[in-house]
Request: fold
Amino acid sequence: MAALAARRSGASRQGTKIARSFDPDDVVRCLDQLYRHRRIDVSHARILRIWGERQTPPDRRYEGEAADHRIWTEAIARLTAPLRAKGIVR
Reply:
């Protein structure tokens, strides 16, 4: 999310010193494919974006975050296999 936010604010990849084993667009493409195959929906993407920008997952112990936590967990569970297949996560 940090890389995507930086891109939105005008940063470019040219001249970056941080080595990455993947491009953030790889994750976005995985999400898009899951959406097209109806494995996730707009609410999953919204929760991933909101909490991704905060760079922390929702905490199920807090009443206001419990529903977001359930949706977050579903989205991450469905996203894990495609990201593993691409070698992005273990």
User: Anything to note?
Assistant: Residues 22 and 87 are 9 Å apart (CA to CA). Residues 23-85 form one domain. Residues 63-85 form the longest helix (23 residues).
